[in-house]
Amino acid sequence: MVKPLQLGHLVLRVRDVDASEKWYQDILGLHTTHKMAGQMVFMSANERASHELALMQLGPDAPGPESNRVGLYHFAWEMESFADLKTLYEHVKAKDVNIAGIGDHGISIGVYIMDPDGNEIEVFYENPKEQWPSDGKIFAGKFDGGSLED
User: Fold this and answer.
1) How does pLDDT run across 28-62, given as a tens digit for each residue?
2) Domains recognised in the chain with CATH numbers
3) Can you point out the beta strands (E) in 1-150?
4) pLDDT band at residue 150, thresholds of 50, 70 and 90?
5) Do the beta carbons of residue 84 and residue 92 sit within 8 Å?
6) Nearest by Cα to 30 from 10, 47, 11
């Protein structure tokens, strides 16, 4: 069977593409790779990718995401280290970003934030695979990499 290599990119509908571009640059450090003025912006965290995230403008009256509808719940950006996650956590707190929660998944820890349009984003660090539980219950237990509040 043939299968995909990896997830290539995600496209989000936003109210104001310029404001969202600035937010993703300022909060997550993404860089813009291409713009279609007033319509779409293509962004990436990875210097080798054409884009990982595209933002498509709908306009100021577009309704926001609804928690009781089928569709995207959240998407996630992986951090290189736990120290990087802690640094980003302090950054989003200092910028008064809406933090929806912190998830301790045993194998990883994630910080859940909301973008200006109400899209939920997880920023997480995952322990190396050799540190995952050996019993196959990879989402059980507690993350043992430290605390975000240290």
Assistant:
1) 999 999 999 999 999 999 999 999 999 999 999 99
2) 1-59 (3.10.180.10), 74-144 (3.10.180.10)
3) 10-14, 31-36, 40-44, 53-57, 74-78, 99-104, 108-114, 120-126
4) low
5) no
6) 47
